[in-house]
């Protein structure tokens, strides 16, 4: 089995691709099927989110795989009213919902209860199939651990 153990520069030339949903891209250990049909395993350092466009490789570099973010069912809120969009982000963030935030829209994994809340705030929600690339979070690249200055 092909075992992908490291990230390469996004500009690296890939030998094949793998299409993964977010639930798989947040895991450091998983068994996946490459788009060419071969089985592969993810054995990556913990705490990293795999993004669409990332390039993964075997330890010896013999296989180089470009990741494609799979379309999945998401809820997207489109709004030109930045205050409304900020309120939507606040209320979703207050519920610890991973968000993909862009200039005129915000996206989250589809949930009809969250959709109803967002519509209650006055925003329109569209359920669609799209790649989901949420914000990494403030601590994504921070060293592991929980420290407070005293």
In short:
Helix content is about 15%, strand content about 35%. The protein contains 3 helices and 10 strands; from the N terminus they run ββαβββββαββαβ. Residues about 140-150 have low confidence and may be disordered.
Give an overview in words:
The protein is 17% helix and 36% strand. By secondary structure, the chain is α+β, with helices and mostly antiparallel strands. The protein has helices spanning 22-25, 82-94, 112-120; strands at residues 2-8, 16-20, 29-33, 39-43, 55-58, 64-69, 71-78, 100-101, 105-109, 125-131. The strands form 2 sheets. The protein has a 6-stranded mixed beta sheet with strand order 2-6-5-1-4-3.
Which descriptor suits the 3D outline?
elongated
Query: Over the alpha carbons, how many angstroms does the gyration radius reach?
Result: 18 Å
Q: Whole-Å distance between the termini?
A: 49 Å
Q: Which class do the helix and strand fractions yield?
A: alpha+beta
Mean pLDDT: 90
User: What spatial order of strands do you see in the largest sheet?
Assistant: 2-6-5-1-4-3
Helix amount: 10-25%
Number of strands: 10
